[in-house]
Amino acid sequence: MSDEKKKLGTRAPLGVKKTVEAGQVKQSFSHGRSNTVVVEVKKRRILKPGDAKPEAKEEVKKTEAPEPAPKPKARKPEAAKPAPKRAESDAERRERVARMAREAEDARMAALEESRRRDEKAKANAQEEEARRAEENRKAEEEAARQAEEDARKAEEDAKRAASQPAQAAPAGKAPVGDDRRVKPSRKKEDKGRPAPDRRSGKLTVNRALRGDGGGRARSLAALKRAREKEKRAQQGHSGPREKQYRDVQVPDSITVGDLAKRMGEKAADLVKSLFNMGMMVTVNQNIDQDTAELLVNEFGHTVKRVSEADVDIDTTEDVDAEETLKARPPIVTVMGHVDHGKTSLLDAIRGADVQAGEAGGITQHIGAYQVAPKDADPITFLDTPGHEAFTEMRARGANVTDLAILVVAADDGIKPQTIEAINHIKAAKVPMIIAINKIDTAGSNPQKVREELLQHEVIVEAMSGDVQDVEVSAKENTGIDKLIEAINLQAELLELKANPDRAADGTVVEARLDKGRGPVATVLVNRGTLKVGDVFVAGPAAGKVRALVDDRGRRVKEAGPAFPVEVLGLSGVPAAGDAFTVVENETRAREVAEYRQGVLDKKRTTTAPMSLESMFDKKGSETISFPLIVKTDVQGTSEAVVNAVNKISTDDIEVRVIHSGVGAITESDVTLAASSGAPIIGFNVRPNAKAKEIAKRDQVEFRYYDVIYHLTDWVKEAMAGELGPEMIEHVVGRAEVKQVFKSGKKDKAAGLLVVDGVIKLGLHARLTRDDVIVSKTTIASLRRFKDDVKEVEAGTECGAVLEDTNDIEAGDMLEIFEVEERERVL
Questions:
Q1: Were 631 and a residue from 408, 640, 644, 661 both cysteine, which residue would form a disulfide, CB within 3.0 to 4.6 Å?
Q2: Which residue pairs from 151-157 have beta carbons closer than 8 angstroms and sit at least 24 positions apart in sequence?
Q3: Interior CA angle at 513 toward 606 and 666, to 5°?
Q4: Could you tell me if 641 and 366 are in contact, meaning their C-beta atoms sit under 8 angstroms apart?
Q5: Are 388 and 339 in contact (CB under 8 A)?
Q6: Coil, strand or helix: which one is 818?
Q7: Has residue 13 got a pLDDT over 70?
Q8: Among positive and negative, which fits the CA dihedral 631, 633, 635, 637?
Q9: pLDDT tens for residues 497-552?
Q10: What CA–CA distance (Å, rounded) separates 405 from 392?
Q11: What pLDDT band is residue 317 in, cutting at 50, 70 and 90?
């Protein structure tokens, strides 16, 4: 075992010889970049014919030893073996490997350098080719432009020559004199040695461009145009800065910095910087006044043009239509008169519909707008106004938009206060009227008496030699309706009513309300133009876009012409009844006008009234009790009427203060406001939603629902009287003069009195005055005449009295005795 281990330890290690050597290679990239990496160099072994494996030779010898030598004739003679090579040492082998690595690296670097030179040469050739093509294109364009100018000049000269010389007849087969017919040169010119580009050969690739195999392509016209513009800008930049443009800038009362910069054509940042230098820290979206804006405009060299904010608003009075554009339109007729004289019933008879039955208490609460088309007659637009005194503003508004007024007077009732008021409104509006004497079928009717009563108010009917038409009608029996329509048509023909339907519409908001399902809805009466679905409009402080148009019978229509009443959907808010309705060109203009009008309303509401002598000495002082109310109604006109009605109930002791009034259902915000202010909520034809009821129950807010204005005002009077409490009324019983003062006990004093007037009674209230100034209020504690206690002392006699809780008594004072009566207060 030991011998074997020793032999194994001394034996050379097994394995193949190392054929891989380490080395470094430097890589070069574009744009001057390079990198060094470590690589392995693998050596290839070359076996020559004489390099046989020694192991194989030894094995052959061992196998051939016991055999006898073969015969010489059986074997070919072996070739002479070369002399064995000397064994290569490790140092020589390493030197040879290093030399081979260096040779490989030198060859690779030479190849890279050759490739780089080839790339640079190809790139230079491509640039030269591109420059040559650009120059050729430019020369070709210049040549074409020069040729075109020359052709135009020659054509002009030929035209002048032909005009100056008379035309001569040309012989057959020859062109006439002056006919300069030349053979047009071919549009395809020779390409000066450059072959025409083949468009079918595909797009130009890098390889084809470097190879140069006829794949060159000319620059596009867009590229040439960009190059010329770039050269032009460069030339202008060298010549000097662009000349600044100065403008006329309109400066309103208030404007943002950003809007002013747009009008000036300047950068907003420059304006902010200039304002900062002035000591004003503002942003781009902040408003500045007109004086500051004027300073900025002058600083930047522009011209100021002052305008007022009122110029933003729309003024339709200056917009007058030409006479040839006017066409006939239906008349607008307003039905007016005293309450319960049959206005709505008469309109029902004309329309053939039952409107009055739907009104609460049989009283019209809103302005109704309807268009009626009688048989064999032109259409007529009717406005039905309320007759109650609280709706004065609504009735006046109806008179201002009408062409003709029908004054309804009951034959059995005659002229009433609201009838007189309606007559005054009609005269103020300067519109013709027709007297409709209604209820001629009732007992006690006297139409002649009505005509005579109208004389007191300077209304003379035709039956009494006047110029006002009168018609006897009965709305209940449909009597005289045809005569009334005939009278309306006759009056309309005399007025010659015309309007231009082919223009943007403008009209008047007759009524407005907040509908739960449709949002803000306005009843609009079109004055002129045609209102269409999709029109952008402004109505008072509200703007919008017409989403839908609904006529008086609930049908959807696509457009509404002059004197046509429609409900408009698509408003941003609820306008006031009587506001102007105008179609504008775009939404920006509508929003601008609406914001201006809303600002005017806010300013009017928040600005306090100026102090005057009347307001300084106003009888409503600090002792006046305030009675808060919140009013919610179904339409805007009713809201105005209710607020005016409750304000008239105010007295010197208590006044109504409507802290909020609006249109639509009672909401949570209304209940919250009522809870914080302690005000009851009046709902006129409206009800609260579920959330509002829940909050009201929790906060104990009072709801009052009404649909007739009489009942509403009666409750307000009772509530205000209850707030004041019972009325205390004083009745003076007697008066006495203090003649002498005596001591009564240790502290009290007794007064010797002479009863001047009335009687003095024990236990009554008394008022002690000195020089007509009240000294104290007291009561009669005890009353004596001589030494006897008495209950009362009559005038002309003397007595002694002890006054309770007062000792400030002097001779000459006057004592006034009175009784206090408690009476229920009535407003």
A1: 661
A2: 154/180, 155/180
A3: 75
A4: no
A5: yes
A6: strand
A7: no
A8: negative
A9: 888 888 889 888 888 888 878 888 888 889 889 999 999 999 988 899 999 998 88
A10: 16
A11: low
- 3-state DSSP of 496-558: CCEECCCCECEEEEEEEEEECCCEEEEEEEEEECEEECCCEEEECCEEEEEEEEECCCCCEEC
- Going by C-alpha positions, the residue among 654, 773, 674, 657 that lies closest to residue 724 is 654
Instruction: Please give the model's pTM, rounded to 2 decimal places.
Output: 0.50
Answer for the pair 380, 371: CB distance below 8 angstroms, yes or no: yes
What is the predicted pLDDT for the residue at 48?
Answer: 54
Which residues share a beta bridge with 736? Answer: 755, 815
pLDDT of residue 393: 61
Tell me which of 311 and 793 has the higher pLDDT: 793
- Closest listed residue to residue 409, CA positions, set 400, 401, 418: 418
Q: At what angle do helices 290-299 and 257-264 cross, to 10 degrees?
A: 40
616-634 pLDDT per residue, tens:
445 444 567 888 899 998 8
545 class by beta-carbon count within 10 Å (0-12 exposed, 13-18 middle, 19+ buried): middle
Provide the token pair at 663: 């249109």
- Better pLDDT: 562 or 82: 562
Q: How are beta strands 798-803 and 748-761 bridged, if at all?
A: antiparallel
Q: What is the mean pLDDT of the chain?
A: 77
pLDDT band at 306 (very low <50, low <70, confident <90, very high): low
Q: How crowded is the C-beta side of 480, counted as CA atoms within 13 Å? A: 17
The residue among 418 and 360 whose pLDDT is bigger is 418
Tokens linked to 410 = 């009951």
Q: Residue 797: pLDDT above 80?
A: yes
On whether the CB atoms of residues 763 and 779 are closer than 8 A, the answer is yes
Token pair for 641: 């009427």
Q: Which of 18-27, 360-369, 678-687 has the highest mean pLDDT?
A: 678-687
Q: Is 142 helix (H, G, I), strand (E, B) or coil?
A: helix
Long-range CB pairs of 192-196 (<8 Å, 24+ gap) are 192/136, 194/136
Q: What angle do CA 24, 30, 33 make, to 5 degrees?
A: 50
**Spatial contact of 813 and 768, defined as CB atoms under 8 Å apart:** yes
Length of the chain: 827
Spell out where 327-403 has E strands. Answer: 327-328, 332-337, 368-372, 380-384
- Residue 113 gets the label, from left (phi > 0), alpha (psi -120 to 50) or beta, of alpha
Q: Which of 333, 366, 666 is nearest to 523 (CA)?
A: 366
Q: How far apart are CA 481 and CA 468, in angstroms?
A: 18
DSSP string, 604-658: HHHSPPPP-HHHHT-S--TTPEEEEEEEEESBHHHHHHHHHHHHTT--SSEEEEE
For the chain, give the longest Cα–Cα distance.
202
pLDDT value for 718: 85
DSSP states along 50-119: T---HHHHHHHHHHHSSSPPPPGGGSPPPPPPPPPPPPPPHHHHHHHHHHHHHHHHHHHHHHHHHHHHHH
- Facing residues of 819 across strands? 731
DSSP 360: G
Whole-angstrom distance, CA of residue 132 vs CA of residue 194: 11
Residues 6+ apart with CB under 8 A from 251: 260, 290, 293, 294, 297, 304, 305, 306, 307
Contact call for residues 408 and 402 (beta carbons, < 8 A): no
Give me the amino acid identity at 525.
L
b/e string for 260-272 if b means 16 or more Cβ within 10 A?
bbebbebebeebb
Identity of the amino acid at 202: G
